Each structure stands twice: as structure tokens, then as C-alpha cells.
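Bug report

Summary: C-alpha cells for Gas vesicle protein differ between web form and batch submission.
Environment: batch mode, default settings.
Steps: 1) Submit the sequence below via batch. 2) Compare with the web form result.

Sequence submitted:
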Amino acid sequence: MMKQFIKGLFVGGTIGGVGGLLFAPRKGSETLKIWEEPIKETAATIQTVKEDYQTVNDNLAKTQEIAKTSLPAFQKSLEEDLRAFQFQARPRINRINEQLTLLQQHLENSPLNKTTK
């Protein structure tokens, strides 16, 4: 069964190829001239795509290398800035909390609060 399929495929391909050569609307050299420019353009486009792909890969590798060296330094700097901010903000927050406590005490001891109870 498989041998018959392969034999039929080969015979059909041969008959189709011979028929195409015999009944072609123009000479092979004319057909080659017609297809020459589109084939060249396609080859040039493929080469451009390959070059662009390589450029993208190269730039990606450079970006990854820059990120490996720059991000740890940036992260360290950011952590230091955050610690400095927390150090400066802590006394201010404590003062605000003290003022809130005093205000609550004054409100509790206020004459207006005593009359409403």
C-alpha cells in the first residue's frame, strides 16, 4: 500500500513537472527575469530581518548587563534614602502623637465635655 502511494507520488510529480515545462506560457529565461527582482528583494528583506534580530539580541544582552551592575547600586541607594527618611520622620511622628495626646486630654478636661456627660 505504501509502495503504491510513493510510486503514485513519484509518477504524478514527474508528469506534473513535464507538463509544466511543456505547457508553460513563456520561456524559462523569461520566467527567471520576471521572478529575479522579487527573489532578490525577498533575500534582502530576509538579510535585513536577520541583522535586526541580531541587533536586538545584542542590545538585550547589553541591557541585561547594565541592569545587573546598576540595579544593586540603585537598590542600595534607595534603601539608604529610606532609612534616612525614617530616621528624620520618627521624631516628628512622635511629636505629633504627643500633641494628639495633649489635645485629647484637653478635650476630656474641657468644661464643654463635662456638661455633655
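Above is the batch result. After comparison, the two runs are identical; trailing whitespace caused the diff. The mean pLDDT is 86. The first helix runs from residue 2 to 22.
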